[in-house]
Amino acid sequence: MNLFIVEDSLLIQNRLVSFIEELSDISIVGITPDIGSAYDKILNAHADAMILDIQLSDGNGLNLLKKIKNTHPEIRVVVLTNHSSEANRMQALRAGADSFLDKSTDFEQIPSILHRWQATGLGH
C-alpha cells in the first residue's frame, strides 16, 4: 500500500514515519506539511491511502479531503487531528473520510486501520 501523509507538525510526521516503518507492505510515498501542493503530490505518488490533518498552516484539510474523494474516491483517508469535536468528526465523515482519529487518544489505531484496508484489497 502506498501511503501519503499531510501533516504540518514535524513531531507528528516523525511519529507516523516511525510507526509505519514497522508495518510490512506499507510504503510512505510522500509527506507534505501544507494543502497547497498536496493534491498533485498525492496523485503523482500513486497513493492508495493518506493520513490527513484538518488544521494545517495554509488552510483546512477538509477541503483537500473533498477534492480527493470527488476525483479519486478509491483513495482511503484517515483524518488525524487534535480538533476532534463531534462537529469536525461529522464534517470529515460527510466529506468522505474513511476513519477519524484524535491525535492524543487514537494514534495507536493507525496500524490496525491500515492493515484492515490492506486485507480488503487496497494497495498492491
TrEMBL record:
SMART domains: REC. Residues 2-118 form the Response regulatory domain. The keyword Nuclease does not apply. GO terms for biological process: phosphorelay signal transduction system. One of its GO terms (molecular function) is DNA binding. The keyword Cytoplasm does not apply. InterPro entries: CheY-like_superfamily, NreC/VraR/RcsB-like_REC, Sig_transdc_resp-reg_receiver, WalR-like. Keywords: DNA-binding, Phosphoprotein. Coiled coil: none annotated. The modification 4-aspartylphosphate is found at D53. PANTHER family: TWO-COMPONENT RESPONSE REGULATOR. This is Response regulator transcription factor. It comes from Undibacterium fentianense.
